[in-house]
Amino acid sequence: MTRISVTVDGVRYDDDVEPRTLLVHHLRDKLGKIGTVVGCDTSNCGACTILMTDADGNAHGVKSCSVLAVQADGREVTTIEGLAGPDNSLHPVQRAFHQKHALQCGFCTPGMIMAAVDLLTENPDPTDTEIREGLEGNLCRCTGYQNIVRAVRSAAEEIRAGASAEPADADVAAGEAGTPDAGLPRESAPEDVIPVPAP
Amino acid sequence: MTITEEPAAPAREVGAARTRKEDARLITGRTTWTDNVTLPGMLHLAILRSPFAHARITSIDVGPALSEPGVIAAFTGRDVADVQGALPCAWVVTEDTVHPDHGALAVDTVRHVGEPVAVVAARSRAEALDALAAIEVDYEPLPVVLDMEAALAEGADLVHPDKGTNKSYTWVFDSGEAGTGESTGPAFEGAEVVLKRRYVQQRLIPAFMEPRSVVVDPTGDQYTIWSATQIPHILKLMMSLITGTPEHKMRVVAPDVGGGFGGKLQVTPEEMIAFLAAKRLGKPVKYTESRSDSLLSAHHGRDVIQDIEIAATREGKLLGLKVSLIANMGAYLGLVTPGVPILGAFMYNAIYKVPAYRFECVGVFTNTMYTDAYRGAGRPEATYAIERIMDELAVELNLDPIEVRRRNWIQHDEFPFTTVCGLEYDSGNYEAATAKALEMLGYDELRREQERRRQENDPVQIGIGTSTYTEMCGLAPSRVLGSLRYGAGGWESASVRMLPTGKVEVVTGSSAHGQGHETAWSQIVADSLGVPFDDVEVLHGDTRTSHKGMDTYGSRSLAVGGIALFNACNKVVDKAKPIAAHMLECDPADLEFSGGQFKVRGTPGEGKSIQEIALAVFAAHDLPDGIEPTLDADATYDPVNFSFPHGTHLCAVEVDTQTGRVSIRKYVAVDDIGRVVNPLIVEGQVHGGIAQGVAQALYEEAIYDADGNLVTGTFVDYTLPSAADLPDFDTDRTETPAPGHPLGTKGVGEAGTIASTPAVVNAVVDALRPFGVNDVPMPCTPERVWRAIQEGGAK
């Protein structure tokens, strides 16, 4: 067993782990961070993507199935569960995935959202092709990716416009803190209905 | 969008592109997948799987595993041979179908790589997996049967020697014999044009993103099974029947399920093994598969050799159609394995007026993972073959591929139309969908560019592929299923509960795993009862709350379950009416119900809302005499017909003739799925469906080596397309409401997959016609395309 100290979603955890333990298993089995899921065993699918700081403290997208828990010692990890703001407002990428219908079964979604956050940190104004290539390491079987690309483009615009720094709009005001729908509209506002393309 | 018939009345919620209620828990990582379920004292299972495609187990000893750290128990097929029963096949298609016993754990013989042979229960998953290495198994390899045609040859080695044959069944439909059309014999004799082609539907793997997982809790006298399944109700019934557990002592929960695509339409060995382990140990157990286990041992799809033959006049009018299939069952029959190709049998004639039709399918056993439902199940195969050969007919007759279709398809004013299979197509407008698709693609301009590139010998050639498809979905009228020897009905159920505060709980028997039922069902209820969208909660996927259902597959949830819901809502309104009349002191006959309010017809002023009535019913202080104090209502709907979505998909590809690389330049889909409840969800279904069909055309294939090892056992080798591999799809709709029921919906879950594969391959072949190429086997990888060019050019 090896003693490690990892800060996950803003909370420091000190644990003894087997050296062979993968970070994703540590997150899920020991810390209860079940929002991060396992979709494959060859680091192809990206469902387990999280953000982890490097030695200089800069966060990068990492497939947590391809990192040992001991490698996260002393690092800061952000999972899908820690992405929302302190007032439980959704991250612009989360909000865009909802508004652009970028998920169906939702299993790839945590990893896809984290990969998108990472992509937009590296490239705040990506083209569609750059989005598609940037998310190449994350597989989705439901959506055909088109709405994911749309969502990432929309989130990029919102982040660049600085909307994320402002308080949430009335119609996307936070649900009760700590509930699963924190930050989602409680009453669906008219803007929530996406107009159907004209004939 | 083109509406070919005016809707009866404007709808408020139905038709709106509502964002999904389901998303909140999914985008925040706060949901329940089966693998997230952890119970006190729970043990973790690991399964040892056969490394041989066919072998006798000469000895097996789990003893050494028992002394490994953390191990609580281990057992083999021999330990449970008397209690494990046989896994079910609910669709034995003929009276004499060969149907071998299929235990969850192999007892003496393994018949495919990946077949479970032993199980370990340990305190952690890692310890259970570690201990597998300590199990000692001796195998005596037996001859391996892989090639379907070789398996059917005289003297072939046998997958099940005790059965004396590798043939499971022969199923025949002949329109002359059935009286639904002419005989093919005369139709083909003397026909001006006869074309015969062989197409191969490669083996595919559904590859849902959430690996299968099952938790079984045997606490008390009740078994609770959480499973990543599409079919909680069917699973409950089957597990009860097989294990002899009383049905009322069994509960199945399908929490959020991460995709299915037919791949979770199964009663699996893993579910049975977990049940047996929980029962033996008296402890909750969990089994979650790895991706490589999943690719190896979750059922596969397709894998059919298709011989298709058409007879036609020189003008391009179809005279007859003959189809002969060899369908790979794999080593055993899964839940609906034999029925999958039969679902396609009625779709080879597609949208065309075919006077004579004969279909024959032979199911064959091989030492491979068994096949079963995969998105479209039989209908993509049928659509592929007919749409491919229609393009061949166009080339033969020097006609435009659209024109040859136009000369044969059912005209919009000919509906309802009884096909050569005896199916009644209720509605459709193939002309409208095709006209729109041609315009969206810029068909004529692309044809001109194609001609230019051909003349210039451009190394990048373009091709245009057409797919004018229909499908039968909304599974299914129970009587029809009965006549096809399917083991159950095709109805669906719904319940509506009016709560005292006026909120509404809706229970549906369909079981969503990404389809957005919670949103779409809320929209239907909101319109039917006149309550706010947000006041509706949709419950599903737990047999304790949803006691009755037929689950989700075959594009059936809305087309069947949606009608059940609509009918249940109307029953609520009917029940509320006499109470409203009592409250308003009027005759019920004078009341009208609109926008959630009962009002006296023709009078202004206040009415009574359904919420107010719900509260009055709860108090029950002042109800009319003899009125039961509830508004709750159930409905079960058995469809009278299938639904028949249709559409036209056009694909333009660029093929680099020097490298064989295919890239999709433009993809246009115009689908007619009847009336739409939520266009946002529909668009998502179409996108995803097209992507899966494109994946079959260009990327995916499950491959076994000569010894029966799965070569494509990880996502490194089984190449699901990524975002970088797919284009944007240009989608639109025409709308011809289904006339047979009040919602007018038709089902959309499989349409994209059914339509897109032939559109893409037709485009690839079209690009390569100047090279003498008239087929490229799927998937059309750069290597295959390049080889086709070299070989075609040599002809």
Which features characterize this protein?
heterodimer, A: 199 residues, alpha+beta, Ubiquitin-like (UB roll), DNA polymerase, domain 1, 2 domains, five-stranded mixed β-sheet, 5 helices, 26% helix, 14% strand, disordered C terminus, B: 795 residues, Aldehyde Oxidoreductase, domain 4, seven-stranded mixed β-sheet, 22 helices, 29 strands, 23% strand, globular
Description:
Helix content of chain A is 26%, strand content 14%. Chain A has 199 residues and is an alpha+beta fold. Chain A folds into two domains: 2-81, Roll (Ubiquitin-like (UB roll)), CATH 3.10.20; 92-189, [2Fe-2S]-binding domain (DNA polymerase, domain 1, Orthogonal Bundle), CATH 1.10.150. Chain A has a five-stranded mixed sheet, covered by helices on one side. Chain A is globular and about 45 Å long. In chain A, 51% of the residues are buried. Chain B is an alpha+beta fold and 795 residues long. Chain B contains 22 helices and 29 strands. In chain B, the strands form seven sheets. Chain B has a seven-stranded mixed sheet, sandwiched between helices. Chain B has a five-stranded mixed sheet with strand order 1-29-28-27-19, with helices on both faces. In chain B, helix 12 (379-397) runs parallel beside helix 21 and helix 17 (517-529) packs parallel to helix 18 (557-584). The longest helix of chain B has 28 residues, at 557-584. Chains A and B meet through helix 2, helix 3, helix 4 and helix 5 of A and helix 1 and helix 20 of B.
